[in-house]
Amino acid sequence: MIPAQEQILRAVEAAIKGITAIPGLTVARNRIEPPSEDEMPQVRMFQGPQEDATIFTGEDGYAQTVIFEGWVTGLTEQETQLTRARLQAEIHKALHSDVTLGGLARDIRPPDQPLPERLDLEPAPTVLGFEVAYVVEYATAEGDPYTLLS
User: Is 18 exposed, middle or buried (0-12, 13-18, 19+ CB in 10 A)?
Assistant: First the structure.
């Protein structure tokens, strides 16, 4: 059986992989080293902290933070900035088009507090990175880390 937390992370990853408006976009999980320009555009997904968010009896509630790093390049500085803005918008659109991730989650929202910057990037005019985080709220049956509740 796949733990509920991993089911949620896979669903988030699938939503981002479904972005078709950015040609050549690739998605990687937990990749740390910066991509080369020929690997861009790229979104990297990292599992952030998970907090207890139990509200109702009979279930265990969670708030799982997911962090995305986006990397883009372009022929000009203006094209690169436009691509970065489009990719940020497409990530938002992908996650908010179904905030239940097909019935697995209860909500997707921005984090309550900004997260510390992870990017160690010396930007060039035609290479830009960004970071954005979302919190996925979900619940499992009480004491059962495998069974998601909708």
Answer: exposed
Nearest-angstrom CA–CA distance, 2 and 133? 24
Look at residue 116 in the predicted model and tell me its pLDDT: 66
Q: Token digits for 86?
A: 């489009």
Res 99: pLDDT: 96
142 touches 61 (CB < 8 A): no
Q: Read off the pLDDT of each residue in 32-49 and give the average, rounded to a whole number.
A: 91
Separation between Cα atoms, residue 53 and residue 127, nearest integer Å: 38
pLDDT in tens, 109-143: 999 877 666 666 565 668 888 999 999 999 999 99
- From CA 52, how far away is CA 110, in angstroms rounded? 16
Residue with tokens 């970065």: 84
Please tell me whether residue 130 adopts helix, strand or coil conformation: strand
Q: Which two tokens stand for residue 49?
A: 């902290």
Expressed in percent and rounded to 5, the helix, strand and coil fractions of the chain are 25, 35, 40
Return the C-alpha torsion angle 45, 109, 60, 4, nearest 10.
-30
